Amino acid sequence: MVVISQLACGGTNFMINRWQHWPVSGNCGATLSFPSLFHILCTPRPERNILYGKRYYAPEDSLILSLRKELFVEDFETIDWPAQRENIAKIDIYTPHSWLYSMVFGMLDTYEPFHSSWYRESALKVCLDHIKQDDIMTNFISIGPISKMINMLIRWLEDGPDSKAFLQHVDRVYDYIWMGRDGVNMQGTNGTQIWDVSYAAMAMIEAGAGTKPEFQEALRKAYSYLEVSQMVESSPKCVQYYRQYNKGGWPLTTRDHGLIVSDTTAEALKAAMLLEENCPFIGSEVKISRERLHEAVDLLLDMVNPNGGYSSYETLRGGEKLLELLNPSEVFGDIMVDYTYTECTSSVLQALRHFVDYDPKYRTDEIWNVLKNGLGYIKQNQLPDGSFEGSWGVCFTYGTWFALEAFACMGQNYNDNTASMQVKKACSFLVSRQMEDGGWGEKFASCSERRYVQSEKSLVVNTAWALLGLMAIMLSVMVVMDDGVGSVAVNSSVGGGCCVHSVDGGVAVGDDGVTDFYVGVTAIAVDSDGILTKRFYREVSKSYSIDRLMMATGLRRAYAEFLINLVQLDTLHSRIYFQSGPWGGTLSFTPPRPGRSQQKVSPTRTGKRSPIITSVGCGMKKCPSDVVPPPHFLEASYPLNVILGGGGIGGMKGMYD
Ligand SMILES: CC(C)=CCC[C@@H](C)[C@H]1CC[C@@]2(C)[C@@H]3CC[C@H]4C(C)(C)[C@@H](O)CC[C@@]45C[C@@]35CC[C@]12C
Fold it and tell me: Which of 165, 309, 397, 590 would be 377's cystine partner, CB 3.0–4.6 Å?
């Protein structure tokens, strides 16, 4: 197949070379292993081979001529196309062509004038067959926007402008296209619908929406959407066409698209279970049968890679080192096979771990095996500074959040001293990156430079991820509140100063004595690209009052009072006391002293202690000797500055109350 696809194209045709001016270059590729991620991202696709192999030309008309003038600075006819293959703007070269790539294409250039027409014909037939199958399997949406357009062009050329195939393609152009303020745009995927619905449903459940009548309809619809979107059948041809079988899985976007993703399947499965568990009204009309949930588990168990990790669309195939040498894309790295990722693995572990409790009888031993190996895989990914590099969000904050969620779902937390060294290091990493303003901010450049690049100001999304990671692993105390609003989870951190607490009702509370005051209004939502989870944080003030807090968050008075009637903080890893009473005063405490017992805190507070909210201890009484307090954590009295962040528990609840 490799040979066929290479023979089907060549190196010197002007159309192919023209494509090299685009981020996705036009060379044919080395494999047809459908439908790995690199097929979406880059170029080795049969459709290009066909356009080249058949020498399709559009007749020159005035539009084409004027486009040539617009696009090329030099006279089009005089351009030496073969020489342009390596002529790429510096800014676009992320992965330069390898020696192997240049050599192979050099050889193909030489072969091109003498190529065998018979061999080419049969290779093109195979390519066309793959394109047709791609159209059928994706309902003419195709894997991504690039192959979509080229498939469509080929069906136009092969089948004709009035053909059913071409018209079916036209119908699905709108899955990608949208009108933005800057004109017509095409998105990189036909959406992120299932991913979004799963996360949104889980956020609503966390926020307590499951018991609020006004949210029933939305949650019911979310569940129905998951029900209709699950893949119920794998094509019998998936092996023949190099596809991952997809029965039981969920795609990132829609069922029509059909390409399941491991972590989307995991998140959708988790959401379905949580909806059933937390919403009594779910299941009365529409029900995802137990059998279908089993099919989702089967698919996840089947997608595990030998290293214990999970890829996104398919299992790791092919020799990645060799194939990477044939990466033609220039602008992307590590795309030739679907690698394994901390994030995908973490999502799968969370879903499977939840499933074991949901249905303790189904394939339990196999699931535990996958869980154990999966955590082992994640551990291996830890970098010396404690962080985990993410691939699908920015970047170390995102990866570390997912890693911590994986450790947490496997039972590690600070509450009962089960946090491993890896977890401590990961938390230390996050804590060390907390900025003076209390938040976290990691620049996009982290992804390309592969090192943590801090932003000037903290950022909403990064702050949320860091807090979510810390909260996942450090939940330590639950206190039921007297006004029935909810419960409080209080956490302390390894870094010595910053404590991250999560409070049911919309906020997480942290206090490191220098942090600003943030209020999380926590809608879990999806960002403008529809990809990433967000919790919204709003900076309110450095000094605050109940009224401002209420105004900023929409919290009702009793709850706002509770929040700001916090907190006696008995330093690192230690003890939290809650006090009620009028807000005011300062909080004095002694910083942690490595290796020594914690000092008692003497709050200068007014007001009476609540009979209901009692003091609670949370584990360690001794500060571990390796803890170095951050420089700002000095022995002093501080105004009680608090981070209120979007709590993992019940983010939006405060908003409803
Ligand atoms: C290069 C061009 C122009 C288009 C192709 C882009 C697509 C390959 C990618 C656009 C969205 C992606 C990144 C998609 C987004 C969600 C993630 C994820 C968070 C679910 C992740 O965990 C697994 C991989 C993702 C599915 C992604 C894969 C690649 C895109 C579709």
Answer: 309
Contacts of 329 (CB under 8 A, 6+ apart): 23, 24, 25, 38, 41, 42, 43, 95, 335
Q: Identify whether 61 is part of a domain.
A: yes
Q: How far is CA 18 from CA 12, 315, 333, in A?
A: 10, 33, 21
Structure tokens, 530: 């529809």
Residues with beta carbon inside 6 Å of ligand 1?
Answer: 37, 40-41, 144-146, 188-189, 195, 252, 261, 263-264, 312, 343-344, 392, 531
User: Looking at per-residue confidence, does 635 or 132 come out higher?
Assistant: 132
- Which residue type sits at 125? K
Domain boundaries, position 122 = 23-179
Burial state string for 223-259 with b = 16 or more CB within 10 A and e = fewer than 16:
bbbbeebbbeebbeebeebbbbbbbbbbbbbbbebbb
CATH number at residue 83: 1.50.10.20
Helix/strand/coil for 457: strand
AA identity, residue 14: F
Q: 158 CA distance to ligand 1 centroid (A)?
A: 30
Q: What is the pTM of this model?
A: 0.70
CA–CA separation, 377 and 382 (whole Å): 9
pLDDT for position 54: 83
Gap between the Cα atoms of 260 and 252, Å rounded: 7
Query: In a 3-state reduction of DSSP, which class is residue 16?
Result: helix
- What per-residue string of b and e applies to 332-346 under the rule 16 or more CB within 10 Å gives b? beebbbbbbbbbbbb
Per-residue pLDDT band at 472 (split at 50, 70, 90): confident
Q: Evaluate whether 140 touches 174 at the Cβ level (below 8 Å).
A: no
Q: What is the pLDDT of residues 523-534, one digit of tens each?
A: 222 222 222 222
On whether residue 646 sits in a domain, the answer given is no
Tell me if 371 is assigned to some domain.
no
- Domain count of the chain? 1
Residues in contact with 75: Cβ distance below 8 Å, sequence separation at least 6, in sequence order? none
Q: Residue 545: how many CB atoms within 10 A of its CB?
A: 13
Q: pLDDT tens across 145-170, in order?
A: 999 999 999 999 999 999 999 999 99
Domain-located, residue 59: yes
242 CA to centre of ligand 1 in angstroms: 20
| Catalytic (active site) residue 263 | yes
Q: Say how many Å lie between the CA of residue 533 and the centre of ligand 1.
A: 14
ipTM, 2 decimals? Answer: 0.95
Between helices 364-380 and 342-358, what is the axis angle to 10°? 150
Which pLDDT score is estimated for 48? 60
